[in-house]
Amino acid sequence: MPSILRIKMKARSVFFKLLLSFLGVIVLLVIFELLTYGVFRQSLRDEIIKYNTVNLTNTTNDYEKHFELLENTMLNLYLNPRLQELNSKPDLDYVAANKVTDYLSNTVSNRALYLNNLFIYDVKHSLMLEKSRGASPESMFTEYYVNPVYTYSFWKKQFEQAGPMTIYPAASYLRNDSPGDSTGPVWPMLVKSRFYPDFMMLAFVDADRMFQAFHRSVNDNFYVLDASGRLLFASGSAADEPLPALPPGQDWVKADNQYFFYTTGPKTGFTYVNLVPDGHISSQLIKLNLTFVAVLLVAIAASVTISVLFTVRFNNPVQRIVDSIKSLNEQDTVPRHDNEFELIRGNIGFLLQQRHLRHQDLEEKHALLRYHSYMNKLKKIRGLPVAGMEQLSEQKPFRVVLFHLSFNHPFHTEIQAEEERAASYIREYINHVVTKDLEGSLTFQIERNQILSIMHPEPGEDDRLRTTLDDIVGVLNTDKAYCFLTIAVSPLHAHTASLTDAYEEALEMIRHRPFDDETVVLEAQNVPQEPFVVPDATMQEIKANLQAGNAPNVLQALRRLMAQMEKRKAGALAYREFAREITHKTTRLLHGMGLDSGNLTDHEPEQLHTVSKLDRYFEAMISEACRRVNNKKEAADPIITGATAYVTERYTEDITLDLVASWLNITGGYLSTYFKEKTGINFLDFVNDVRIGKAKELLRQTDLRIQDVAGQVGYQNMNSFNRMFKKITGVTPSEYRRSGTQM
């Protein structure tokens, strides 16, 4: 049992696994090589067969073309004038016959035709002409060209029965007039024409010369068979080999360790056969086999040797590393392993995990420090230098793009999400787009609803910046019902030392954005800068109507002011300051009257983004404020009612605090304190408001002189009237009359 455990422990070692891996790779490579070699051998055998098939095809084409050439040559003899001259006379013309003989001699001498001899059989004169003589057919085939098969009787029968073109098996002819002289193997080729029945052509084609010229193969084993399968010609050892069955539609068959390649000629119908012994093909493969086996054995021996040496050399440093880890890992922070690589991997994984945690911690701290460094730079707060701030000190032109995020009411009612989370998502999207399109840009969040990008555009990249901003606007417009952006683009600054100035410029543009809820891109040249000032007279009118609880008149005045602001294209800052001012004065007036000034509306001025929303805000706030004022008025207060009635009825007379207090049977000090507490204004201010209000009516509705108007409203001194009128309305009486307005 201990020996088995020891073997298992060794089997898990790096040395054993590495050596086994190398041997496995060697085995796989050997298998792959054997499979590859098997495919290669088969491919090589196929290529050899293809080579022999192509050679036989070329041989067949050459034979067929030559037979066609010979046929055409012999047919052309029928049109030869010498032959026509011979045929034109009833008796034999020896001169014409000699001319034909000469022509035949010239034709046979053409080496390209591979002719041994050429005969013309003159049926009418029973004469056989060839290249050197003329004789009767019987003499020609019994004395001059003798063959035991092709006798005179044979040819006499063929002259009568043969078709237009007939090629006979090759044979040798002996000559009795010249003992020992033979033609060698020749193909008799008989050509007849039904248009010229008086003549027949017979050619002796030199079979050996044609074979030498047209045959292409690794040996001389060659057959030619006619359409019926009769042997016409055989060369080499082929004459001794019996032919197997040759199935149609194939290129070769194998029989008795012999490859028989065959094709059929399209004109003659002959079958041409090449015989290649299997040993010839196998001999080429045997040489390849021996070479391959020798190389493979050497490669295997070398691979095994190198694997063992490499495994030993690799295992030594690994073992030293393991020993070092074991000596350092005395606290067992990492589980121990029997396998060296598992031990190394465990320790490396532990180190990488610790490194990742430290790196992540450093990244978070670095990001925090860099954020504070940028904030210090923007707000001109001196601090210690931080790594990563070198980008801000580069001598490169830059632009600041400030994104101000505003949320609409549906964001809180429909989505019910946190603004901080939505702002972080938008910041990440902006950072992704800007960093991708404008290399070197920095994007970070500086306020709850402000995202800042610092860009270093190259010359000519302004269009790219505009395209990038348009892409951002296009994406965020899909959620325009919930939020919108104000994008302020600062002018190009030469150096980052002016980063604070660029930020303040962008911030100023944000303040003066158009008063709507559309995402807009602002530049310095398209930001309205003209402030809007509310006339004092209108403000006094609003105040008086508020004190009187007259909500329609207050709203009419406010809407008139908003129309003027919209006409002048006032920015969002002007609208919000206007809303804050009206809100402040309304709450102060209610507080001065001793009324509750809280919960006048559900919205803050900063949440208002359009004129319609501001109008609804004013309508809700003013209506509620006037309701509270009117509720107080409805509560019967004899002192206040008596004092106000006395003033409104006798404003043309001299009115003093003590006079009215005496009329009410109270002291002047009590009346002053009580009136201030209940109405929110001093008694004398109320008297002046009533008198000036009546004066404004007279100035609008009559043509009385100003001094007459002053007298009718209780002012005996013109200076006092003018001073009080301008204090309350903001203009002099004459200016008020000229303006023709209802301020």
Automatic annotation (TrEMBL):
HTH araC/xylS-type domain segment(s): 641-739
Cited PROSITE patterns: HTH_ARAC_FAMILY_2
Top-level taxonomy: Bacteria, Bacillati, Bacillota, Bacilli, Bacillales
A Pfam family that the UniProt record links to this protein: HTH_18
MF annotations from Gene Ontology: DNA-binding transcription factor activity; sequence-specific DNA binding
UniProt name for this protein: HTH araC/xylS-type domain-containing protein
Domain of life assignment: Bacteria
Keyword Cell membrane set for record: no
Residue stretches spanning the membrane: 20-40, 290-312
Alphabetized UniProt keyword annotations: DNA-binding, Membrane, Transcription, Transcription regulation, Transmembrane, Transmembrane helix
PANTHER family listed in its UniProt record: ARAC-FAMILY TRANSCRIPTIONAL REGULATOR (PTHR43280), HTH-TYPE TRANSCRIPTIONAL REGULATOR EXSA (PTHR43280:SF2)
